[in-house]
Design a protein that fits this description.
Number of strands: 12
CATH class: Mainly Beta
Number of domains: 1
Largest sheet: 12 strands, antiparallel
Distance between the termini: 28 Å
Number of helices: 4
Helix content: 10-25%
CATH topology: outer membrane lipoprotein receptor (LolB), chain A
Structural class: alpha+beta
Strand content: 25-35%
Mean pLDDT: 80
Order of helices and strands: HHEEEEEEEHHEEEEE
Oligomer: single chain
Length: 267
């Protein structure tokens, strides 16, 4: 399994935006040596705000990723994410809606439970009700994913990207552009583009786009591209995510993250 490190610089910007760091106003002009220095300060504040105000969320996630050089089909899933709180551990529940080969697949992970393993129901057309426990980093769990389930959630992503940004500050300069009046799923958005100025041996990405919902003040679409395979060629899509029907703090309870929830199909 080849797990290419994603374009963490631009993901970092995405996640900082997700926390309301950049809203409807103009992109601030940062007086810093590297554009990431300002974003790093924003994200650290955003992490504190999330820890204080955001308990979790539910949404429809549309995902497409390049795994081992092959671009997957679009995957649609209903997601519940609970951030770690003093009275509750980090938890994730996923139910796949499409395509047919994985429809009704369910995945549940709660930090500190089930010996650190996720619980997965196969779904799809054959052996749909087979339920297994897997190490989140195992080859089988990562077979169709660029990121482990333990990385899901704005708070965990911010922590990882903040650490990465500290390492990347000394890297190649990037160009950050903003454009207004974009639309995703018929929602008014502000678009952000992050692009490498030139390709070097240390380059880890070409460019990324993120769309910030102007009402929710959160990202609802993100896509990242690698450099073209040849000069003049098309950029290579690495990963693409669209968040639909987002509900912040929807009142998630312990039963939402238990395998014996009567609405779930785990055996």
């Amino acid at each position: 399994m080849i797990r290419r490190r994603p374009i963490l610089i631009s993901l970092f910007i995405l996640t900082a935006l997700a926390c309301g760091v950049l809203t409807r106003g103009e992109l601030p002009q940062l007086k810093s040596v590297h554009p990431l220095e300002g974003v790093l300060r924003w994200a650290e504040e955003a992490e504190r705000r999330i820890e204080r105000d955001v308990h979790g969320y539910s949404c429809i996630l549309v995902k497409r990723e390049r795994i081992d050089g092959e671009l997957s089909d679009y995957e649609f899933m209903f997601a519940k994410v609970r951030h770690e709180r003093p009275d509750a551990p980090f938890g994730v529940y996923l139910k796949f809606l499409a395509p047919k080969r994985i429809k009704n697949r369910e995945v549940l992970y709660v930090e500190g439970e089930n010996d650190g393993k996720l619980v997965a129901r196969n779904g799809g057309r054959r052996f749909a009700y087979i339920t297994t426990s897997l190490d989140p980093l195992s080859e089988l769990a990562m077979r169709d994913n660029r990121h482990p389930i333990t990385d899901i959630g704005i708070q965990n992503l911010l922590r990882r990207l903040i650490e990465t940004a500290h390492d990347e500050i000394a890297g190649q300069p990037v160009v950050v552009e903003m454009f207004k009046n974009a639309r995703v799923d018929n929602r008014s958005c502000t678009g952000i583009v992050v692009r490498q100025e030139k390709r070097t041996e240390k380059s880890t990405f070409f460019f990324a786009r993120v769309y910030i919902d102007n009402e929710l003040e959160m990202p609802i679409h993100y896509e990242a591209f690698d450099w073209p395979d040849e000069d003049g060629g098309e950029p290579v899509l690495l990963e693409q995510y669209t968040y639909r029907d987002i509900r912040i703090n929807p009142g998630l309870r312990d039963i939402d993250f238990r395998r014996d929830n009567p609405q779930y199909g785990f055996r």
